[in-house]
Amino acid sequence: MPAIAQQTDFDAAAATWDDDPVKVARAQAVAAGIRRQVPWRAGMTGLELGCGTGLLSFMLKHDLEQITLADSSSGMLAVLGEKIAAAGVASMRPFKLDLEMDLLPDERFDLVYSLMTFHHVQDTDRLLHGLFSLLKSSGHLCVADLDREDGSFHGPGFTGHNGFDRDDLARRAISAGFREVAFETVFDMRKSVNGAMRSYPVFLMVGSVS
Fold first, then answer.
1. In the 3-class helix/strand/coil scheme, how is 82-97 assigned residue by residue?
2. Mind listing the pLDDT tens digit for each residue in 82-127?
3. What angle is formed at CA 105 by the lines to CA 179 and CA 137, rounded to 5 degrees?
């Protein structure tokens, strides 16, 4: 699926994105995993990539002093802005960013995290190197995404990655500079494919800068 078509799909889905209990449960599970794996301290700043409507970041807003939420979908960012305003949250800032086309921000963060975003980005190595440069010397990267699957999750026409092999992704993260790369299964997506329920595990990969 071309990038423009993907963005249009996300724009159209934004208004009802948070109505899906599976997406809410998935974000809750990933947030819990991040809390378990990251050494927390006061005053930490975070960047969520491919934030959508901010489900995951809203679950981490009490853990981080400031959060920048980046996405390429105008529709998702519009819904996110409404949610931030309605909640009166001063610590969350939406930011439009296309990970394949735009330059990464100059700011540095204690925590960079994403949920179901990596498999949409073609050049994983370039992305990992870029994210390493976004982190402070004591920073951590948290990536939640699909294990390697047979292409049935998205179906025909999808041009991203059909999930990831954990060992391969770990090698790529280490090559980009990350240390102590570890994985944990945090959620199990259940989806009907051709009339049968299929299981799609979601991992959380955590890597540190130092």
1. HHHHHHCCCCEEEEEC
2. 999 999 999 999 999 999 999 999 999 999 999 999 999 999 999 9
3. 30
Q: Structurally, how many domains does the chain consist of?
A: 1
pLDDT at residue 8 greater than cutoff 70? no
Structure tokens at 17: 């994105």
Q: Residue 193's domain is classified under what CATH number?
A: 3.40.50.150
Q: Would you say 91 and 65 are in contact if contact means Cβ atoms under 8 Å apart?
A: yes
Q: Which H or E run includes 124?
A: helix 124-134
Find, among 118, 115, 127, the residue nearest to 148 by Cα.
118
Token pair for residue 88?
Answer: 């009166």
Q: Which pair of structure tokens corresponds to residue 19?
A: 């109505």
Do the beta carbons of residue 107 and residue 67 sit within 8 Å? no
Tell whether the model's pLDDT for residue 2 goes beyond 50. Answer: no
Domain hosting residue 88, numbered range: 3-208
68 neighbors 3 (Cβ within 8 angstroms): no
The per-residue pLDDT for range 148-186, each reduced to its tens digit, is 999 999 999 999 999 999 999 999 999 999 999 999 999
Amino acid type, 98: D
Which backbone phi and psi does 193 adopt, to 5 degrees? Answer: -130, 120
- Dump the DSSP string for 1-61: --HHHHHHHHHHHGGGGGG-HHHHHHHHHHHHHHHHHS---TT-EEEEES-TT-HHHHHHT
CA distance 104 to 102: 6
Q: Is the pTM of this model over 0.70?
A: yes
